């Protein structure tokens, strides 16, 4: 019986302890059934490239597939926003602690600025770094850059609210 391919590909080099943690968190992507909202890690050939704990940052490589494009053949803006939302959350969960974004929180604000189109077949690097983590709010800043020439295509600020208390039952009911 053949095993399923990993949701997110790993680099060919060994990962350090923190990278292994973020990589394992990333493996949860693309595993939801057809009823869930997720990114298609297989179509994107999503590859974990690296992560650092200090400063908290993660890098992924991905190749834009036709299913992620608008009718002009470029990465769809809504798909780009979803990529920023989901992938910037991986580094936040990576640096989380019990009670502090361990469940990833919920998006409070997601801002995407579109600078250049990303045509189908283009391989890009998506980099996300944690700017701030507080008790209630966190901010990640991300960018999508063309691998071939380093051209910045899109940038994003993603603010999340901590929901850990909601899961742990320490909030009063309405």
From TrEMBL:
Keywords associated with the record: Hydrolase
A Pfam cross-reference name: 4HBT
Sample GO molecular function, one term: fatty acyl-CoA hydrolase activity
Domain Thioesterase: start-end pairs: 73-151
Superkingdom as given in the UniProt entry: Eukaryota
Membership in a protein family: Belongs to the thioesterase PaaI family.
NCBIfam families membership: unchar_dom_1 (TIGR00369)
Protein name, UniProt field: Thioesterase domain-containing protein
Organism: Aspergillus calidoustus
